[in-house]
Amino acid sequence: MKPYIYITRKLPDEVIAPLLEKYEVKMWEKEDVVVPRSVLLEEASRADALLTMLSDQVNEELFSVSTKLKIVANLAVGFDNIDLAAASAHGVAICNTPDVLTDATADLTFGLLMATARRIVEAAEFVKEGNWKSWSPLLLAGNDIHHKTIGIVGMGSIGAAVAKRAFGFDMKVLYHNRSRKVELESQLGAAYCSFDELVEQADFIVCLTPLTPETRNLFTRAVFKRMKDNAVFINASRGPVVNEEELYDALVAGDIAAAGLDVFDKEPIDKNHPLLSLSNVVALPHIGSASIDTRMNMMRLCVENIDAVLSGKEPKTLVKK
Ligand code: GLV
Ligand code: GLV
User: Fold this and answer.
1) Residues spanned by the domain of 160
2) 260 and 124 in one domain?
3) SS3 label, residue 82
4) 93: helix, strand or coil
5) 273 given a catalytic annotation
6) DSSP alpha helices (H): ranges in 59-213?
7) In a domain, 33, yes or no
8) Are residues 249 and 139 in the same domain?
9) Gyration radius of the chain over CA positions
10) What is the whole-number distance in angstroms between the Cα of residue 295 and the centre of ligand 1?
11) Key word Oxidoreductase present in the record (predicted)?
């Protein structure tokens, strides 16, 4: 019997074609609907490998029914949807998709920063809605980006790639991270500082830290209050790093100028969420790595990792515990 691979979302046929000779492969048939939990658990109970999305909870409940499971390949660099301790207790390898998405995610993060600072989305809607009656000196005037200070919270590879883009815009780069990145300090003139110094000094605070117990609820009202009044906050990591109610209060009270958000506490965000009623919020549907080339590369990497583990080889990108 061929080993069985279950994929929790419909992927293009060309991605799974290389697997079909050696493996039995089944995909959840919908492209834009999350696999129901009962279906996932049923499939997991007979799967040798799972290819999962960041919207799937891969936890003890799942591992305990998955007696044959050897690998979970998650189509994301983040793996906060996976209980690593439970995976290791059950001897299941966990793989993610680092590196292949670094530049695409940095491009989107910097694009979101620019869109938020220069009110690009609001301005585009303004034109399409027929509101453009005359050119005027301060019409939709936003914040400068060039020569300002960017503060990057979470200086992993994506943070470093954002710093490189900021350097090209003549920005001063501050960063906060668990460990110092001395090579970036010399390459980009990035300066390491404490979290408090960063939030007080930066004009743009860009959150790229993974979601962990330490970073959950990191950005609270007290933190927004310490930021400059004209600061722009960007989140391209995970929603729960930010206290959304307190971000809303901060934006309404004018503690900061604007926010650009690619991620939310609950995804998809409800269209009646208070944050979406604010004109100084740019909201995107978690599309950090969503270029066609990058998403295809991420899928191929997941497939290679699965094939490696099921063939008794080392996967390319095993998550380190
Ligand atoms: C996306 O958010 C990812 O972790 O790849
Ligand atoms: C976060 O995901 C990072 O790479 O900084």
Assistant:
1) 102-283
2) yes
3) strand
4) strand
5) no
6) 60-65, 84-89, 102-117, 120-128, 157-168, 182-188, 195-201
7) yes
8) yes
9) 21
10) 11
11) yes
Cite the DSSP H helix spans in 13-136.
13-16, 37-44, 60-65, 84-89, 102-117, 120-128
Q: Whole-prediction pTM value?
A: 0.95
Catalytic residue of the set 238, 246, 295, 304: 238
What is the pLDDT tens value at each position of the chain, 321 positions in all? 999 999 999 999 999 999 999 999 999 999 899 999 999 999 999 999 999 999 999 999 999 999 999 999 999 999 999 999 999 999 999 999 999 999 999 999 999 999 999 999 999 999 999 999 999 999 999 999 999 999 999 999 999 999 999 999 999 999 999 999 999 999 989 999 999 999 999 999 999 999 999 999 999 999 999 999 999 999 999 999 999 999 999 999 999 999 999 999 999 999 999 999 999 999 999 999 999 999 999 999 999 999 999 999 999 999 975
Q: Are residues 122 and 206 both part of a single domain?
A: yes
Q: Tell whether 201 and 159 lie within a shared domain.
A: yes
Do residues 195 and 210 both lie within one domain?
Answer: yes
- Same domain assignment for residues 160 and 19: no
Q: For this structure, is 286 an active site residue?
A: yes
Question: Would 176 be classed as within a structural domain?
Answer: yes
User: Is residue 156 in contact with ligand 1, taking CB distance under 6 Å?
Assistant: no
Atom number of ligand 2 nearest to Cα 77: 2
User: Could you give the number of structural domains in the chain?
Assistant: 2
Question: Is 154 touching ligand 2 by the criterion CB < 6 Å?
Answer: yes
The answer as to whether 126 is a domain residue is yes
